[in-house]
Each structure stands twice: as structure tokens, then as C-alpha cells.
Amino acid sequence: MPSHSVAPVESVPPRGRATAAVDRVVTGISLWWMASPITFVLSVFISVQSRDPIWARVSGALLAASMGGVVAAPAIGLVLALVGRRWRARRRFAAMAAVSAAVIILLLLLWELIRECPDGYHC
């Protein structure tokens, strides 16, 4: 009696499902990183326009999501790409990490320059 007649038939092998899941997570992390500048600008806009405590919490949540996208998304994606052996994704997340690092360094430099100007003076 052949063994294949008893075994259930699956349309996608288990490895194929795992591959598709990793691809979806990689895409989601990439989208999170790409949405980070939008959420950052929206957070700043909300915090400048509204003084309501509820909107302050919304602004804080958006700020946390954008900072997490800038810092955590490339790191998580790079680890996932290395573990999942996704070489194209690994290069993409390495480039994302480089761009994020450059933006963070420029923002820290800008912050230091803004802090140097004393109050009441137009530097």
C-alpha cells in the first residue's frame, strides 16, 4: 500500500509558509521605517497646535512610533534578514541603518546649535 494515499495533501509546504511570513514581516518593517518621517512631522504639528493633554499623549505616541521606526526598524530588520538569509533585504536594512544614523547625527548637531543661542537673541 503506498504511503502517499494516507498522508494529507497541503497546498503549501511548511517552509513556504515560513518564507512568506518572513517576507511579510520584512515588508512591514520597511513600511514602518518609511512612515517614520511622516509620523515625526505629524507629532510635531500636533504638539505645536494643541495644548490638550489627550493630544499631547497622541503626539507622544506618534513620536515614540517614529523614533522606534528610525532606530529599531533597521536593527530588527537586519537581524531578521540575517536569520532568514534574505540577502537583498539585508542590504536594504543596512542602507536604512546608514540613512537613519546620518539623520540622527544631523538632528543632534542641529539641537546643539539651537541650544547655543541664548534666549532673546536672534542667532
Walkthrough of the structure:
The protein is mostly helical and 123 residues long. The protein has one domain (16-116). 79% of the residues lie in helices and 0% in strands. The radius of gyration is 22 Å and the shape is elongated. 15% of the residues are buried. InterPro entries: MFS_dom.
What are the secondary-structure elements, in order, as H or E? HHH
Biggest beta sheet attributes: none
User: Share of helix among residues?
Assistant: over 70%
How many strand units?
0
Strand content: under 5%
How many independent structural domains? 1
Low-confidence runs (pLDDT<50, min 5 residues)?
Answer: none
Classify the secondary structure makeup into a structural class. mainly alpha
- Our measurement of the CA-to-CA distance between the termini, rounded to an integer number of angstroms, reads 88 Å
Gyration radius over CA: 22 Å
- Mean of all residue-level pLDDT scores: 84
Alpha plus pi helix count: 3
Shape: elongated
Key attributes of the depicted protein:
mainly alpha; 0% strand; transmembrane helix; MFS_dom
